[in-house]
C-alpha cells in the first residue's frame, strides 16, 4: 500500500481530523506509522502518543537515588525524527508537580532532574524555556513563587507546587526519559506529566519550483541509487510533454518524463539495455491539476504509478547487471538536448530525502521558488459556499460568508434556544452606510447612496436546520420598515408553514407543509429560494417543490429591517397568528442559519465584523443540533419482513445473530475458561443455542409464510402508531436506533 507522506497531504485530499497512516520517508526503511491528524482552519497538527499516564507519581527506587521515567511511543524514534525534521514547528508539554522536591536546583546548582530527548541527549532546561537556559517558565516570565529561584519547585516548599510549559525546540524532541533526583528525602513527593508530540506543517510537502522556460532546470548532486531507487513527486502543467528529471552515467541512466498529455514514462539502464515503463491515463495529465508520481526500482523489479491509476510493474532479468552507476549531476526539469518541463514540481523525494527545490530555484534563472494555483486543484474541498484562498504553501477555505466553519466549511454552527429566548440580527446599524451592507451581504443593489428604507429584494435564499418537540412556535421571522414580512412557523398541529406578505394582497400568502409533524424532536433542514414570484421549497431530503406568489402580490421585499430567531420582538403591527405563536416561544435547536450571505447565528457565536448587528435575549448555548435531517421513506422489499424474498435473509440473519451471541459473550463476561472441560462445555452449549435459534427462526418464517398465503392482511405500521403523532414518530418510538436510508424509488413528495 502507498501511504501519504504526512497529515498535510491528507488534509489536501479533503480528509477531516482522524487517525491516519503516514510514511514520512516514502518507501524507505522507516515504514509507515499511525498518527492522529488534527485538521484546524489554518493548520494541520500531527500527534504521536506515548504510554505515560498524566500525573505519574515518582519515587526513588535505586541505589543512585534517581528515578527514571520511561516513555514508550507508538512510533520509533527515527519515525518521529522524520516528522519533526520536516515540520515547521513542534511542541511537547511537560509538567513537574512537587512537594519538597527540587527540579533544576536554580539559580546555580546542578540540576536534580533532567529529560532525555532525540539521540539520547540530556537536557537541563524545562518547559517554557529554551536550550542552554537553566530556568523554568516562571523564571523566564519572572513570576516564580519565590523570586530567588528560577523554578517554583526549587523553593522546596512543603506545599504542592508545579512547573509546566511547552518544549518547542524540535531538534531535541521527543522526550524519551525523565530522570528525577530529589525524591529520596522524607516528605518528598513528585509527579510527572508529559504530553504527546505535536507537530504543525510540512515543509517538504509544499517545497516547490516553477519552471517558466523550456531550457531552465535545477541541478543537484549525483543520485545515489545503485541498488534501489525510490522517487516520488507532484507535478502540474498545461504542456503536453517534458522531462521531469534525469541522471546519466557512461551508459547507465535514469529518467522520468511526461511523454504525452496522457503518458508518464520511467526509463533506466543498469547495463542490460534500456528499460521503459509507461503509465497511460484515460484523462489528460496536462490539465493544470496536481498529479502524483511514484517510481521505484530495485534488484528484483521496477514499478511506476501515477495518481491512483493501476501500478505498472516490470520484473528484472534473473541474470545480468543490477547496479545503477551514475556520474553526472541530477537534472530536475530538463535533460540534455530534450524539451524541458514547463510547470510546477513539488515534494520531490529521492530515497527518502526531500530535495530543496525552492532554495535552488532562488539562484537559478528561468525557475521560480514556490508554485501558485493550488485552488485549481483543491478548491473543490471548500464546501457550502466556502471560498478557496491561495496561500504560498497550499490553500485555505474562507467560510466567513457561510453559516459553517472548520477547515472545509462543513462544521455546523448552531445553538440551543431555551423557552423565551430570542435573537435579532439588524440588517442596518445606525451610523453605517448601506454600501458595505449591500456589497457584503444582501447583494441587491450597487447604489452607494442607498439608505435602509430604500432597500428592496427581488430574491432571497434562506436555509437552516432545526429540531423541536413543541408547537406552535416561530422559527424565523424577517421584518421590514414597511408591512412586508417573511416567516417560517410551526403550527399547533406541528406542521411547517412559510408565510410571505409582500403587499398587494389582503392576506399573507401561506405555504403549508401538512404531510407530517415537524415537532418530533428530529433535525430537519429547510431551504427556501424566491426569485420574483417563484418560490422553491426543499424540506429535508425530499425533492424541491415549486410555488408561485399570487398575481396580485408584489414581488419586492421592501426595506428589510431585521431577522428574528425564536421569537418576534418588533415595533408596530404584527400578524395575529404570529403574535399568538410568539408565546411562549421556540424551544429547541437552530443551526446553519443563512439568509442570502448573512449567517446570524454564526455572527453571534463567532467574533466577526457582523457581530455588532446581533442582539440576544437569554444565554445562547452552542450546539450542532444533530446536523443530519431525517426523512422516513416507505419500506423497501429488502427490509419488508412480509416480503416473500426476505424470508431466507431473515433466517440467515437469525443464525448469524445466534452465532455471534454465542461467541461474543465470552470476551466480555470477565471470566477466562480455565480447562478443557469448561471449554468443551461452552462449545456444546453454544452449538445447542445455535440449533435452538435456528429452529425458532425457521418456525417463525413458516408461520409468516402460511399466514401470508391464507390472505391475512398485513401492514408495516409500527407498534404504537395509534398514539404517535405521525408515522415518523411511530417508527422511531418502536426502534430507538432507527437510522434513515432513502429509497430513491419510493420518496415521499411534498404536497
TrEMBL record:
The keyword Transmembrane applies. InterPro entries: ConA-like_dom_sf, EGF, Fibrinogen-like_C, Fibrinogen_a/b/g_C_dom, Laminin_G, Neurexin-like, Neurexin-related_CASP. It is found in: Membrane. It is a single-pass type I membrane protein. SUPFAM superfamilies: Concanavalin A-like lectins/glucanases, Fibrinogen C-terminal domain-like. The chain crosses the membrane at residues 682-703. Residues 1-50 form the Fibrinogen C-terminal domain. Belongs to the neurexin family. This is CNTP2 protein. It comes from Rhynochetos jubatus. The gene is Cntnap2_1.
Amino acid at each position: 500500500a502507498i501511504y501519504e507522506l504526512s497529515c498535510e497531504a491528507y488534509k489536501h485530499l479533503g480528509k477531516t481530523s482522524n487517525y491516519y497512516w503516514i510514511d514520512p520517508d516514502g518507501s524507505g526503511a522507516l515504514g509507515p506509522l499511525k498518527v492522529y491528524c488534527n485538521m484546524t482552519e489554518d493548520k494541520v497538527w500531527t500527534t504521536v502518543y506515548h504510554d505515560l499516564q498524566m500525573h505519574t507519581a515518582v519515587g526513588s527506587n535505586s541505589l543512585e537515588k534517581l528515578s527514571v521515567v520511561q516513555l514508550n511511543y507508538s512510533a520509533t524514534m527515527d519515525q518521529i525524527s522524520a516528522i519533526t525534521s520536516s515540520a515547521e514547528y513542534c511542541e511537547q508539554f511537560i509538567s513537574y508537580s512537587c512537594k519538597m522536591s527540587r527540579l533544576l536546583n536554580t539559580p546555580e546548582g546542578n540540576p536534580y532532574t533532567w529529560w532525555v530527548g532525540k539521540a539520547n541527549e540530556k537536557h537541563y532546561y524545562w518547559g517554557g524555556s529554551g536550550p542552554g537556559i537553566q530556568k523554568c517558565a516562571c523564571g523566564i516570565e519572572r513570576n516564580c513563587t519565590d523570586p530567588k529561584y528560577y523554578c517554583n519547585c526549587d523553593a522546596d516548599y512543603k506545599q504542592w507546587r508545579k512547573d509546566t510549559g511547552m518544549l518547542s525546540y524540535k531538534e531535541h524532541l521527543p522526550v524519551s526519559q525523565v530522570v528525577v533526583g530529589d525524591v529520596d528525602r522524607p516528605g518528598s513527593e513528585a509527579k510527572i506529566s508529559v504530553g504527546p508530540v505535536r507537530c504543525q506543517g510540512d515543509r517538504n510537502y509544499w517545497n516547490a519550483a516553477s519552471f517558466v522556460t523550456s531550457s531552465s532546470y535545477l541541478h543537484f548532486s549525483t543520485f545515489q541509487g545503485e541498488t534501489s531507487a525510490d522517487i516520488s513527486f507532484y507535478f502540474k502543467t498545461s504542456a503536453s510533454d517534458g522531462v521531469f528529471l534525469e541522471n546519466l552515467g557512461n551508459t547507465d541512466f535514469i529518467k522520468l518524463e511526461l511523454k504525452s498529455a496522457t503518458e508518464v514514462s520511467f526509463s533506466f539502464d543498469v547495463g542490460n539495455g534500456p528499460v521503459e515503463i509507461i503509465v497511460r491515463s484515460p484523462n489528460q495529465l496536462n490539465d493544470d491539476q496536481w498529479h502524483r508520481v511514484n517510481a521505484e526500482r530495485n534488484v528484483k523489479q521496477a514499478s511506476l504509478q501515477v495518481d491512483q491509476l493501476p501500478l505498472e510493474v516490470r520484473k528484472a532479468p534473473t541474470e545480468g547487471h543490477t547496479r545503477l552507476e551514475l556520474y553526472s549531476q541530477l537534472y530536475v526539469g530538463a535533460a540534455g538536448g530534450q524539451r524541458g518541463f514547463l510547470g510546477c514540481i513539488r515534494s520531490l523525494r529521492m530515497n527518502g530525502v526531500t530535495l530543496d527545490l525552492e532554495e535552488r530555484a532562488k539562484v537559478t534563472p528561468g525557475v521560480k521558488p514556490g508554485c501558485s494555483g493550488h485552488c485549481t486543484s483543491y478548491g473543490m474541498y471548500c464546501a457550502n459556499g466556502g471560498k478557496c484562498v491561495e496561500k504560498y504553501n497550499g490553500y485555505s477555505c474562507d467560510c466567513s460568508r457561510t453559516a459553517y466553519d472548520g477547515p472545509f466549511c462543513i462544521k455546523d454552527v448552531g445553538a440551543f434556544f431555551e423557552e423565551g429566548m430570542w435573537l435579532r440580527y439588524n440588517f442596518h446599524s445606525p451610523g453605517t452606510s448601506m454600501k458595505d451592507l449591500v456589497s457584503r451581504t444582501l447583494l441587491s443593489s450597487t447604489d452607494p447612496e442607498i439608505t435602509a428604507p430604500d432597500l428592496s429584494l427581488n430574491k432571497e435564499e434562506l436555509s437552516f436546520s432545526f429540531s423541536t418537540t413543541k408547537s406552535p412556535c416561530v422559527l424565523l421571522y424577517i421584518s421590514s420598515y414597511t408591512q412586508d414580512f417573511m416567516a417560517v412557523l410551526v403550527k399547533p398541529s406541528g406542521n411547517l408553514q412559510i408565510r410571505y406578505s409582500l403587499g398587494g394582497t389582503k392576506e399573507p400568502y401561506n405555504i403549508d407543509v401538512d404531510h407530517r409533524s415537524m415537532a418530533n424532536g428530529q433535525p430537519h433542514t429547510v431551504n427556501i429560494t424566491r426569485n420574483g414570484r417563484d418560490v422553491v421549497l426543499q424540506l429535508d431530503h425530499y425533492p424541491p417543490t415549486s410555488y408561485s406568489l399570487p398575481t396580485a402580490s408584489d414581488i419586492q421585499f421592501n426595506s428589510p429591517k431585521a431577522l428574528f430567531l425564536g421569537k418576534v420582538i418588533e415595533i408596530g403591527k404584527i400578524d395575529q397568528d404570529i403574535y399568538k405563536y410568539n408565546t411562549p416561544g421556540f424551544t429547541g435547536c437552530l443551526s446553519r442559519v443563512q439568509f442570502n450571505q448573512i449567517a446570524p447565528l454564526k455572527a453571534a457565536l463567532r467574533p466577526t465584523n457582523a457581530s455588532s448587528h446581533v442582539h440576544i435575549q437569554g444565554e445562547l448555548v452552542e450546539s450542532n443540533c444533530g446536523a443530519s435531517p431525517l426523512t422516513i421513506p416507505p419500506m423497501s422489499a429488502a427490509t419488508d419482513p412480509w416480503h416473500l424474498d426476505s424470508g431466507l435473509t431473515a433466517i440467515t440473519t437469525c443464525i448469524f445473530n445466534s452465532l455471534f451471541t454465542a461467541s461474543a459473550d465470552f470476551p466480555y463476561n470477565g471470566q477466562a475458561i480455565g480447562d478443557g472441560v469448561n471449554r468443551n462445555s461452552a462449545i456444546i452449549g453454544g452449538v445447542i443455542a445455535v440449533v435452538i435459534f435456528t429452529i425458532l427462526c425457521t418456525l417463525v418464517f413458516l408461520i409468516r409464510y402460511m399466514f401470508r398465503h391464507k390472505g391475512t392482511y398485513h401492514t408495516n405500521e409500527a407498534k404504537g402508531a395509534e398514539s404517535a403523532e405521525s408515522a415518523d414518530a411511530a417508527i422511531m418510538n418502536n426502534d430507538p436506533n432507527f437510522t434513515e436510508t432513502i429509497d430513491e424509488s419510493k420518496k415521499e413528495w411534498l404536497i
